[in-house]
Amino acid sequence: MAEFPALTEEEFQRLCDFLYRRTGMVFTETKRYYVERRIVERMIATGAGSFQSYFARLRTDVQQEIELFINAFTVNETYFYREDHQLKCLTTDLLAERVRANKAHKGIRIWCAPCSTGEEPFSVAIWLLENWPLVDQYEIEILGSDIDTEALQACRQGIFGKRALMRLSPALIEKYFESLGNDRWRILDELRGSVEFSRVNIVEPAETRPNGRFDVIFCRNVLIYFDDASRRVAAENLFENLLPGGFICLGHTESMSRISPLFDVRRFADAIVYQRPLGESA
Amino acid sequence: MAGPKTVLVIDDASLVRLYYRSTLEAAGFRVEEALNGLEALEKLPGLAADLLIVDVNMPQMDGFSFLRTLRQAERSIAAVPALVTSTESREADFAAARTAGANHYLVKPVSREALVTFARLLCGLPR
Questions:
Q1: DSSP-derived 3-state class of residue A151
Q2: Is the predicted pLDDT of residue A202 greater than 60, yes or no?
Q3: What is the pLDDT averaged over residues B22-40?
Q4: How many Cβ atoms sit within 10 Å of the Cβ of residue A267?
Q5: Segment A145-170 mean pLDDT
Q6: Sign of CA dihedral B95, B100, B102, B106
Q7: Which tops the pLDDT comparison, A44 or A103?
Q8: Residue A110 is inside which H or E element, if any?
Q9: What tens digit of pLDDT does each residue of A57-107 get?
């Protein structure tokens, strides 16, 4: 890889400010290596000879550089059945409550935001097939959204490597994937057809609102990349995307209580989940 | 020895098709799928299906319209047994299914055990 001079303090700050305004993600000097590595990659890819020329290209969005720049900074580290105690909670407690609260309605809407390369929404679909006895009774709509357009392309392809499947039993892999050889598997067409994917930035209300309201939202391991202000904006956006009585599941290191007072804390046997209070007008 | 019995699952929900298909394949059936009644009518002549599993509410052609059309077809497919699955559970719904040509009716949710039991029964297999 070609050598580029390290970013000055001011350049580093300008870049981090730009990223923050666009995504809500916060990077500080402690992440300098992570940031510089990605900038160098983008400079090589675009043929920019200096930080100044790259930044000019980025700001004017030459050939969708903003999208490619954001894609380079997202973390797509996930696997099937990650934090499956929440999936257990989904089928033992959350959906049971949603069904009771909404007797007349035959639909259940679940949103994974962010969805990264698809492991999470597809995990929800597989978990429901395996563990929810009402799976054929309810019209189940699963939406996966992410800011990273390359990750969304991967979702639509539905091809996964060994690491992504490490938590699934051989029986489940056999049942829901077809082997492509070389430790790669494609998820079955029916599963691909059961999840919709869309690009959404969760700190932008104009992008979250059109998705409508959900019974359950999984928003795991993204708020840790935000500062307090962006976290609050994201939480308030997602609150608007919940039906009254709807639930939101965060990553195990994240707590909504420190972010927003809008939600009720619900402690179930398998997980702590946050709920939009019932009794509000829909 | 006869080969496996062939079931055509007709349902617009892909998760439901997969749920029925994986259940029936695990019980030794061969399973094909159609998204609605129209697609089922297109597929049936080439299938030699032993059983149809038919959802009621589907776009383009619902389950009852499909069964009425099928039962009037002048081909061998007209007599394939049909198991209707639906969330509707009133007596009037059962009667409408019978009139349209259903052989049996299961109210959703259908358990894996019930699905296999009735598929075997309607295919003439021992329990």
A1: helix
A2: yes
A3: 97
A4: 7
A5: 95
A6: negative
A7: A44
A8: strand A107-112
A9: 999 999 889 989 998 888 777 899 999 999 999 999 999 999 998 877 789
- Band the pLDDT of B14: cuts 50, 70, 90: very high
Q: Is the peptide bond before A170 cis (omega within 30 degrees of 0)?
A: no
Q: Is pLDDT above 70 for B92?
A: yes
Domain boundaries, chain B: 6-122
| ipTM for the complex shown | 0.87
User: From chain A, which residues contact B within 8 Å (Cβ)?
Assistant: 106, 125, 128-129, 133-137, 139-140, 175-176, 188-191, 193-194
Catalytic residue among A109, A146, A148, A220: A146
- So what's the pLDDT on residue A282? 47
The string of DSSP letters for B47-88 reads T--SEEEEESS-SSS-HHHHHHHHHT-SSGGGG--EEEEES-
Please state the domain extents for chain A.
Answer: 9-73, 84-275
Task: Supply the CATH classification number for the domain A9-73.
Answer: 1.10.155
| CB-CB neighbors (< 8 A) of B17 in chain A | 190
- The Cα–Cα gap between B103 and B52 comes to 10
The fourth-level CATH superfamily of domain A84-275 is: Vaccinia Virus protein VP39 (3.40.50.150)
Contact assignment for B19 to A137 by CB distance below 8 Å: no
Q: How many CB atoms lie within 10 A of CB A8?
A: 10
- Give the Cα separation of A92 and B127 in Å (integer): 32
Q: Do A135 and B33 touch (CB under 8 A)?
A: no
Which CATH code is given to the segment(s) B6-122? Answer: 3.40.50.2300
Please tell me the pTM assigned to this model. Answer: 0.89
